[in-house]
């Protein structure tokens, strides 16, 4: 998972994130610690983690948790969703998203800006920018949110 995480960062963020960070030999061990803690530490027992495989090879990873933004009006936060570029368009991204956040669940996420491919993917799945921005790992990110579908009107007329 850590190797895939690093490879997808290198594919996705080259030209957006500093090369020194993407090519840092310590990046792999940092991501190994991230996933080891995420998979074994009781503090993260309620996080949802999924992987996508193709022909026995790992091609994507995803992770969500309870929302942490102080102004969140949604219950889930997508923290990780990466698919190898060679697997884009296979449906792996949607499967991963749905595995860690139900399509009926209100959710938020932070996405690099610019990152038109990822932003278009999230828009396709109901997320819209809410105007919030921040900087992390030296790159600008925008927040996108998805509201839960409206409750159906249960009023009925009896005859």
TrEMBL record:
Top-level lineage group: Bacteria
Database matches in CDD domains: NAT_SF (cd04301)
Keywords, in A-Z order: Transferase
GO-annotated molecular function: acyltransferase activity, transferring groups other than amino-acyl groups
InterPro entries (UniProt xref): Acyl_CoA_acyltransferase, GNAT_dom
PROSITE patterns listed in its UniProt record: GNAT
Domain N-acetyltransferase, first and last residues per copy: 14-149
Record keyword Transferase present: yes
Keyword set includes NADP: no
Name listed for the protein in its UniProt record: Acetyltransferase (GNAT) domain-containing protein
Organism, scientific name: Cryobacterium flavum
